[in-house]
Amino acid sequence: MSHPHPELKAPPTLPRNGLRVVALGGLGEVGRNMAVLEHRGKLLIIDCGVLFPEEHQPGVDVILPDFSFLQGRWQDVVGVVLTHGHEDHIGGVPYLLRERGDIPVVGSRLTLAFISAKLKEHRIKPRTTQVAEGDRLNLGPFDCEFVAVNHSIPDGLAVMVRTSAGSVLHTGDFKMDQFPLDDRITDLRAFARLGEEGVDLFMVDSTNAEVPGFTTAEKDLGPAIDTVFRTAPGRIVVSSFASHVHRIQQVLDAAAAHKRKVAFVGRSMVRNMKIAQDLGYLKVPRGLVVDAKALDDLPPTKVTLVCTGSQGEPMAALSRMANRDHQIHVGEGDTVLLASSLIPGNENAVSRIINGLTRWGAKVVHQGNAKVHVSGHASAGELVYCYNIIQPRNVMPVHGEWRHLRANADLAIATGMHPDNVVVVDDGMVVDLVDGRVKVTGKVRAGYVYVSAGAVGDVTEDELRDRLTLSQQGTVTVVALVDADSGKLTEPPDFLARGLGTDEKMFDAAIPAIEKALADAASQGIGDPHELEQRIARAVSQWAFRKHRRNPLVVPVVIEA
Ligand SMILES: [Zn+2]
């Protein structure tokens, strides 16, 4: 088993007979999936997703992979293969194409339809190549073959990448539902054929590797969804991902069976469901779906609303309904169905929404009290099948937090793989395949890149820390007039405090600490106002913590008098 080494440096030049794999996201986290394959000077990208912020990342829209590994090498990129249309696999593409607009974007029909609609909002027209299972496509030195996989969005693909240095089979996200709504199962026959041919590196979805057994079928949710529709005394509000076509299909079927109308609410839900319907992935009985405004004329027992926000996203419809900040007022008699998974990290936000909705009198049905969700990812039993069918030479678990990657690696080893052939790595670690053997050879930058108020990379880790400090500890501004010659205060500084829950006068007691900091600076011949500001900030911070166990954000302003 390979372990990450913090001392790892930039990798050596890749030998001509080598294949390099660098995950810029998705390892050690759920989201922001992105892998870069390098061979003979060319680069192939597999997926480019976003990660959604958590509560400790205030003001962040989404988190992108760090593209600095690709800086100066954009012309070497031969394409980006998208395995499926989930945001954590395609959400970063608009930002990728800002770097180089003509990178070929490769994916299945539905995936390309979703990404193209998204790119249109960014006013980007991509160069797309549509592929389907069974297709082969040469992208530079990478010979790609696509394999059908089943997931919580239709039209998912795994990709086999053949190069002269060896082959990589990347599953994308997948599970092995044997009775999917669209009858399109994960193609184990292809997996077996590719295994027979020889898979040098198997990159496998780890999201559910800790879950024993098998992921149950999407169709198994039918009865629970039907129960909601049979028993709901008033309106039904269903919240799901805007991409979960099959889940929403089940909701539409139940609505039709119980003679209710359906309206889609929210921009992404309306957009994606129209795409899915136009392309035939979503079957909508005539007259079933109506405009949200038309629901006003119907009795509550005839109404179904389908919206986003099942992860507690603050701007999504459901969260705004829970806050009574939406034109649809959810209340007594309404039933809210949270028909999707709970992504780790979102528990508090979702719990707040459930509390908000129930406080207004709604009944909330969710995965904690009814069988209204199945996962989109293969559980341990399915993964073991894959290892045994494919018998890869080397394995690299992808997509998941460290515990998921580790659990997936253990499954591979349990099927008889030698631990040396199973490589568990974090984002940015460089894995080279040379002569059929994998080795960790270095590390590249793969930190978070924040999109905040639409701007990429303006908000740094330091500034995010400031935001957190501001929100939790408040702020104090210190305005100090300093004599340019003596370096001393010309009068007592002004303190302006916000969010501290205390009197600003408290800080008058910090003046001696400021005077001492200035005297120390003067004795070292330091008079630069910026440096003096840093020293005042440090002095006030230390004083506030020592004397009051407080840790406000200190904003120093030095004016030379
Ligand atoms: Zn997915």
From TrEMBL:
<dbReference type="InterPro" id="IPR030854">
    <property type="entry name" value="RNase_J_bac"/>
</dbReference>
<protein>
    <recommendedName>
        <fullName>Ribonuclease J</fullName>
        <ecNumber>3.1.-.-</ecNumber>
    </recommendedName>
</protein>
<keyword id="KW-0862">Zinc</keyword>
<dbReference type="Pfam" id="PF00753">
    <property type="entry name" value="Lactamase_B"/>
</dbReference>
<dbReference type="InterPro" id="IPR055132">
    <property type="entry name" value="RNase_J_b_CASP"/>
</dbReference>
<keyword id="KW-0479">Metal-binding</keyword>
<dbReference type="InterPro" id="IPR041636">
    <property type="entry name" value="RNase_J_C"/>
</dbReference>
<dbReference type="Pfam" id="PF17770">
    <property type="entry name" value="RNase_J_C"/>
</dbReference>
<dbReference type="Pfam" id="PF07521">
    <property type="entry name" value="RMMBL"/>
</dbReference>
<keyword id="KW-0698">rRNA processing</keyword>
<dbReference type="InterPro" id="IPR011108">
    <property type="entry name" value="RMMBL"/>
</dbReference>
<keyword id="KW-0540">Nuclease</keyword>
<dbReference type="Pfam" id="PF22505">
    <property type="entry name" value="RNase_J_b_CASP"/>
</dbReference>
<keyword id="KW-0963">Cytoplasm</keyword>
<feature type="binding site">
    <location>
        <begin position="373"/>
        <end position="377"/>
    </location>
    <ligand>
        <name>substrate</name>
    </ligand>
</feature>
<keyword id="KW-0378">Hydrolase</keyword>
<keyword id="KW-0269">Exonuclease</keyword>
<comment type="function">
    <text>An RNase that has 5'-3' exonuclease and possibly endonuclease activity. Involved in maturation of rRNA and in some organisms also mRNA maturation and/or decay.</text>
</comment>
<dbReference type="InterPro" id="IPR042173">
    <property type="entry name" value="RNase_J_2"/>
</dbReference>
<dbReference type="InterPro" id="IPR001279">
    <property type="entry name" value="Metallo-B-lactamas"/>
</dbReference>
<dbReference type="InterPro" id="IPR036866">
    <property type="entry name" value="RibonucZ/Hydroxyglut_hydro"/>
</dbReference>
<comment type="subunit">
    <text>Homodimer, may be a subunit of the RNA degradosome.</text>
</comment>
<feature type="domain" description="Metallo-beta-lactamase">
    <location>
        <begin position="31"/>
        <end position="225"/>
    </location>
</feature>
<keyword id="KW-0255">Endonuclease</keyword>
<dbReference type="InterPro" id="IPR004613">
    <property type="entry name" value="RNase_J"/>
</dbReference>
<keyword id="KW-0694">RNA-binding</keyword>
<comment type="similarity">
    <text>Belongs to the metallo-beta-lactamase superfamily. RNA-metabolizing metallo-beta-lactamase-like family. Bacterial RNase J subfamily.</text>
</comment>
